[in-house]
Amino acid sequence: MAASRIHEHLPDVRLVFILREPGRRAYSNWAWSRMNGMETEDFETALAREDERERNLDPKLRFARPHAYFSRGLYAEMLRPYFDLFPRQQVLCLKFDSIIREPGALAGRLHRFLGVAPRPEDAEALNVVNPSEDTGEPMPARVRERLRERYAAANRALVDLLGPEFEAWDDL
Questions:
Q1: What is the pLDDT of residues 60-102, one digit of tens each?
Q2: What CA–CA distance (Å, rounded) separates 101 from 171?
Q3: Dihedral sign, CA of 46, 64, 85, 4?
Q4: Using 50, 70 and 90 to split pLDDT, how confident is the model at 128?
Q5: From CA 163, how far away is CA 11, in angstroms rounded?
Q6: 83 closest CA partner among 97, 69, 93
Q7: What SS3 state is found at 94?
Q8: Residue 167: what pLDDT?
Q9: Residue 18, class by beta-carbon neighbours within 10 Å (0-12 exposed, 13-18 middle, 19+ buried)?
């Protein structure tokens, strides 16, 4: 487990996790896999086939996991091992939306967490690093609603773990 290895070798490290609204994250992952020739299914079918595909994944793709659309949005489950091993003051969780909406404030918060002088200007003119969502196919509304329902319990667990900042996700 990564959290254990990090803790063993870097027990005083400061960890930063940037979390995106899970449905949007899943769609972006699908678009990236499609853009890179690893996905041929439409988004809804790909979601339905995720478990099967993960079980039968080519070993050389075990770290990329190009079809892990839904499961990678189960943030509380993925973060819990870090909170079990590291003091809360060593872990900062931020919302991806803040990069878009308030990059200077986010940079300041990150710098303070790291113990360096805030430099909000570091966030000026940030561009998208990995553009993958311009597929010409918006996420179908029924799929979006199903994802909201599927993520409801996981998102409540995230709020329990991180607090009310993660109660509502911006819908970019």
A1: 988 888 899 999 999 999 999 999 999 999 999 999 888 888 8
A2: 11
A3: positive
A4: low
A5: 24
A6: 93
A7: strand
A8: 87
A9: middle
CB-CB neighbours of 26 under 10 Å: 26
**Residue appearing with tokens 């299914």:** 41
**CA–CA separation, 100 vs 85, rounded Å?**
31
Q: Which residues, in sequence order, are CB contacts of 128 under 8 Å at separation 6+?
A: none
Contact 71, 22 (CB under 8 A): no
The pair of three-digit structure tokens given for residue 29, joined into one six-digit string: 């992952």
Q: Which residue, 51, 79, 47, is CA-closest to 157?
A: 79
Closest CA to 113 of 10, 17, 9, 5: 17
Q: What is the DSSP string of 135-152?
A: SS-PPPHHHHHHHHHHHH
**In the numeric block, which tokens belong to residue 23?**
């449905």
CA distances in angstroms from 121 to 56, 106, 107, 108, listed in the order given: 46, 11, 8, 9
Q: Are 69 and 50 in contact (CB under 8 A)?
A: yes
Residue matched to tokens 């990236």: 32
**Measuring CA to CA, which residue among 16, 165, 157 is closest to residue 74?**
157
